[in-house]
Design brief:
With 126 residues, the protein is mainly beta. 12% of the residues lie in helices and 36% in strands. The protein contains two helices and eight strands, in the order E-E-H-E-E-E-E-E-E-H. Strands 2-1-6-5 form a four-stranded mixed sheet, with helices on one face. Strands 3-4 form a two-stranded antiparallel ribbon. The chain is globular, with a radius of gyration of 15 Å.
């Protein structure tokens, strides 16, 4: 795909991806994609990431059922960051069982969790 050739992947062949809820504009998570993950995401309209720890493609929701349907895809001015606007299935984007991954807020020089767990990760992943 010609458009994907313009993306500036880093030295590891990855590009950071910010994922945002299409309806609420809430930032859900940040992850990485390689060219194959980005290509599959464009083709299937489902979020596919690259897991750096497992060194393989990560089809969002493959284990949890909390997939992300892609509504829109953007890149920044340098074409080295991707923004996905998605419809989050199941209302849970974070592996901790929360709606999003950004639940630690800096208050008085300490990180405070400001979001409740919607579903225990043990129930999601076993």
């Amino acid at each position: 795909m010609k458009a994907l050739d313009k993306i500036q992947f880093n030295e590891n062949g990855l590009v950071p991806v910010i994922t945002q809820d299409f309806s609420s504009s809430e930032i859900l998570m940040m992850a990485w994609m390689n060219k194959e993950a980005l290509s599959l995401s464009v083709k299937t309209k489902k979020a596919v990431y690259f897991s750096r720890s497992r060194k393989k493609l990560w089809f969002k929701g493959e284990e949890s059922g909390h997939s992300q349907d892609i509504v829109e895809i953007y890149t920044d001015c340098d074409q080295d960051v991707i923004l996905l606007k998605v419809s989050q299935q199941g209302g849970i984007a974070c592996h901790t069982g929360r709606a999003n991954c950004f639940f630690n807020k800096l208050e008085n020089n300490e990180w405070q969790s400001i979001s409740e767990v919607i579903k225990d990760p043990k129930e999601i992943y076993g």
